[in-house]
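Blinded run. Sample ID left blank on purpose so nobody reads anything into the name before looking at the predicted structure. Input follows.
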Amino acid sequence: QVQVVESGGGLVQPGGSLRLSCEASGSIFSINFMGWYRQAPGKERELVAQISYSGRTEYAEYAKGRFSLSRNNAKNTTYLLMNSLNPDDTAVYYCNAKIIPTGERLRLSFDYWGQGTQVTVSS
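Blinded prediction complete.
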């Protein structure tokens, strides 16, 4: 069993900051990528940022320069620091982890998702 749990969402004023946290737990052999996606009402889910086991990051264009993604491999956690937030950032944010479960003989990774955390940017 593997679980992915997010925390840290909430209401913030335009120009403010939030930090989202995500922890994976359970029968985990290794985690290749950890990242964040978001889904706004009426829109498709989109990638915000992701980070490899070695620390290589990838950001969506709108996130570059404003968001910072980090990872603690020992704790199977990832953190998304979001600065200069604006109303367009309002969405449900989902943590994604590409995990090789313990006992997976072929070392294949599978997508695991958190339940989502609401981020609302409003005055």
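Unblinding after everyone has recorded impressions. The chain is about 0% helix and 60% strand.
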